[in-house]
Structure formats: C-alpha cells, structure tokens
Amino acid sequence: MKKLLFVLPLAVLMLTLTIGVASARYGYEDPALCVAGKWLIVDAAQQSAVTVFVPEDTPYGNQQAGGCKTPGPNVPLLQVVKERGENNSMRLQVNGKLASTPSVKVTYGDAVQVKDNNGKGRLNFRFALPGGGD
C-alpha cells in the first residue's frame, strides 16, 4: 500500500509532464509560405505571430500560387501577407510573445536566419527575393 501511495502520484506527474510537452510542440506549427518559387518556413512560431511583407506582384501562397517546384512541408500556410514595395526583398515580423524562446529560425530557400527571442519584442527578418538586389 505504501508503494502505491508513492507510485501513483509519480505516475500522475509523469503523465502531466508528457501531455504538457506534447501540447507545447503543437502550439508552434512552423508555418510556411511559398514566395517567388522558394519555401519560407518559420521555426518555431504560431501562425498568428508572423506577418510577411512582399513587393507588389510577387507570387505567394501554396505550392502552385507561389511557384514552388517541390511540395512544401505539411504545416499551415502563413495567412498574414501584405503587398508593399520592398525593393525586391521580403520582410517578416514575428511577435516574440507568440514564438519560441530562446530563438526563432526562419528559412527561405537556402538562406537561414536565427534571432534571439526574449518573448517580449518583435523579431525582424529580411530576405532577398530571386532576381532581387538585396
């Protein structure tokens, strides 16, 4: 009986920690977007934390709309995209409160940027688009 009193709370604690770790990973779905033929992947931030700014007339969206030759990752597409003149570069803002700490990684094609995140501010990323001068 004494063993049961010790093992039962330990089992409940382990189950609680396991569920917490599994649900924490689900909160950061690493959203993606095909932009001008390359995949943009944000690791690790909630979709609602990311705003993408692209120049006008830049193709973006799913594989077909953005012109990517390969299928993207099986994650949600980024939804907040604003078209503005950005001199052939794409800019991203990530709300640090809705992103992982201590860092956020953004990949666009072969380019990778990692920024420290304290969970309080905005993280800014900029990538040159294919054919761009930035």
Features:
five-stranded antiparallel sheet, 22% helix, 134 residues, alpha+beta, 2 helices
Structure, explained:
A hairpin with a 2-residue loop joins strand 1 (32-35) and strand 2. Residues 17-26 have low confidence and may be disordered. By secondary structure, the chain is of the alpha+beta class. It has helices at residues 2-27, 63-66, and strands spanning 32-35, 38-43, 50-54, 60-61, 81-83, 89-95, 103-108, 111-116, 122-128. The chain has 2 helices and 9 strands. The strands form 2 sheets. It has a 5-stranded antiparallel beta sheet with strand order 4-1-2-7-8. It has a 4-stranded mixed beta sheet with strand order 5-3-6-9, with no helix packed on it.
Strand and helix map with partners:
Blueprint: H1 2-27, E1 32-35, E2 38-43, E3 50-54, E4 60-61, H2 63-66, E5 81-83, E6 89-95, E7 103-108, E8 111-116, E9 122-128
Parallel strand pairs: 3-5
Antiparallel strand pairs: 1-2, 1-4, 2-7, 3-6, 6-9, 7-8
Summarize this structure briefly.
This protein is α+β, with helices and mostly antiparallel strands and 134 residues long.
Order the strands across the largest sheet as they lie in space. 4-1-2-7-8
Structural domain tally: 1
Query: What series of H and E elements makes up the topology?
Result: HEEEEHEEEEE
Helix content: 10-25%
User: What structural category characterises the helix and strand content?
Assistant: alpha+beta
Largest sheet: 5 strands, antiparallel
Q: Gap between N and C termini, in Å?
A: 70 Å
What is the number of strand segments? 9
Strand fraction equals 25-35%
Number of helical segments? 2
- Would you identify the regions where 5 or more consecutive residues have pLDDT less than 50? 17-26
- Report the C-alpha radius of gyration, rounded: 19 Å
Mean pLDDT: 84
Write down the overall geometry. Answer: globular
